[in-house]
Each structure stands twice: as structure tokens, then as C-alpha cells.
Specification:
By secondary structure, the chain is mainly β. It is built from 2 helices and 18 strands. The two termini are 28 Å apart.
Length: 251
């Protein structure tokens, strides 16, 4: 097996002698290399009433959280930690592209959240995500598309229970440590205030979307149903596993 040696003060007159520190590595060792900027991409749909909001942040393998910026990159162009006004004009408006820059983030996983505020017509606060994938910095892409049966069967996405009194991006990050996570059932769900796999239109009329990002009534997407009687509630969506930010492998 080949060995790579890094030696101090070795020269032509002393080709074998080492007068300083020698560090040796097996050639089979793999050294992580950042080849691309790590990025989350996908499609989103938010037909809200402006009194709630949605966003995302990063959780490292120790449970610490840090800010992320959600960027809408198609038709409605904007970037923010939290969006708290409607994007799509109706439930039948097409989905838009999004991306989230993961540069300089440690190993971990993304956490998406959506919260319902207080006020009239708060049921118009459904948020949906589809075709989600992560490009890791070693130029490796891993798909977490809810349309894929394997994504749902393997329980790749986790939902949280309902967190109360969440009224801001900072509040969503602070409340995350108190949340309990569970696997999203592989079914056509519509439970209020928690994340569901779903196909077709959402449960409450006049909210979005009317079907998946592919405009197909039989393909699954992820969504949060805002129908219910409680205000200032929040729920989280995250991956089952932490991931190596370079290779994408499960930590």
C-alpha cells in the first residue's frame, strides 16, 4: 500500500534522513475537498395571508442552530430569513424555484418551519415544498424528493409536534430545541399544523397549492396545513439524518 510522507528538512544530500517531524498518510485515505458551493434547491408554494411566515435554518450535529437565507429564484425574486407575506396569487398559481446557500456550514441538516400568526383568514397560510435536493460541496447531489416512493418509505423527512407562541424567525429558532420529531407517515395526509405528504389540492379551500410542482394530481409533495383554531403556532420539517457537508453521507 502506497504511503505519502511529508518531511521537514529532507534534501538531496540527505534523501532518506528526516531531521524534523514526519507525518505519513496511507494513499487510500480520502481528503475532503470543496468543489462547489453547497446548496439546497427545490420548488415552493405559499399562498398566505401575511400574518404568519416561513423560513429555514441549519442544525449542526451538536444541535446548535444558525441562520440560513431562503431565496426565491423564479418569477417572484426575493431573499430572506423569513417570508411573511403571500407569494403565489392563488392556489392554482405555478410553483416557484428556491435555493438555500449552505456555504461555510458544518455537518448537519436543514430545518424548515412555517408558523401561523393571528388574525382573520389564517387558514390561508399553507406552505408546500417539492423536488428538494442538496448539492454537497464535494459535488455530490442527494435527492429528498417527496415524489419518490423511496423517500417516503425510508422516512427521510421528519415533522415536529406543534410549538406555541412562535411569532418570529428568532422565536422559531429558539423553540426548535423543545420540539419532538417523528417520521411523516407515508400517506396522503392533511393534518393541521404539522407537515404532511400530500397529493392533489390542500384541505382548505382557496389556499395553495392545487397539486404538485409537476402539475400532477397523483404526485406527492410536502405541505403544512394551516387550518385550525390556534394562533401563533409553528411546526418544523427536517431530515431524518445529519449529513456530511462535503460528501452527503449520513453522519
Amino acid at each position: 500500500m502506497g504511503i505519502i510522507s511529508l518531511n521537514e528538512k529532507r534534501d538531496s544530500s540527505n534523501p532518506k534522513k528526516t531531521t524534523g517531524k514526519e507525518v505519513s498518510y496511507f494513499a487510500s485515505d480520502r481528503f475532503p475537498e470543496n468543489l462547489v458551493d453547497p446548496t439546497i434547491t427545490g420548488h415552493y408554494h405559499y399562498y398566505g395571508n401575511g400574518t404568519g411566515g416561513f423560513g429555514c435554518f441549519w442544525e449542526d450535529t451538536s444541535g446548535n442552530v444558525s441562520d440560513l437565507t431562503f431565496s426565491s429564484t423564479q418569477t417572484s425574486i426575493w431573499s430572506s430569513n423569513e417570508r411573511n407575506s403571500s407569494v403565489q396569487g392563488s392556489n392554482s398559481t405555478a410553483w416557484y424555484d428556491f435555493e438555500v446557500d449552505l456555504s461555510n456550514k458544518p455537518n448537519g441538516r436543514p430545518v424548515f418551519y412555517v408558523r401561523r400568526g393571528s388574525g382573520t383568514d389564517n387558514y390561508k397560510n399553507d406552505w408546500a415544498l417539492d423536488d428538494i435536493s442538496i448539492l454537497f460541496s464535494g459535488d455530490v447531489t442527494v435527492s429528498f424528493d417527496p415524489t419518490a416512493n423511496s423517500t417516503r418509505i425510508n422516512g427521510e423527512w421528519m415533522k415536529s409536534d406543534i410549538q406555541n407562541s412562535v411569532t418570529s424567525y428568532t422565536g422559531a429558532k429558539n423553540s426548535y430545541s423543545s420540539a419532538t420529531l417523528a417520521t411523516i407517515p407515508n400517506s396522503n395526509g392533511s393534518t393541521g399544523f404539522v407537515w404532511n405528504y400530500h397529493y392533489g389540492g390542500t384541505g382548505s379551500g382557496g389556499t395553495g397549492p392545487d397539486n404538485s410542482a409537476d402539475n400532477n394530481n397523483s404526485l406527492y409533495y410536502l405541505y403544512w396545513e394551516a387550518t385550525g383554531s390556534s394562533n401563533d403556532v409553528c411546526s418544523y420539517l427536517t431530515l431524518k439524518d445529519y449529513r456530511n457537508i462535503v460528501t452527503g453521507v449520513v453522519m
